[in-house]
Amino acid sequence: MNRQKSFENSLPTLYIVATPIGNLNEMTYRAIQTLKEVDYIAAEDTRNTIKLLNHFDISTKLVSHHEHNLMIAIPKIINDLKSGLNIALVSDAGYPAISDPGYELVKEAIREGFNVVPVSGANACLDALVVSGIAPQPFMFYGFLDRNDKNKKKELEKLKNYRETIVFYEAPHRIKKTLKLMLEILGNRSIALCRELTKKHEEINRGTIEDILSVIDDMKGEMVIVVEGNQEENVEDIKTFDQSIEEHVEEYIENGLTTKDAIKAVAKERGLSKNIVYNEYHKK
Question: Whole-prediction pTM value?
Answer without folding.
Answer: 0.79
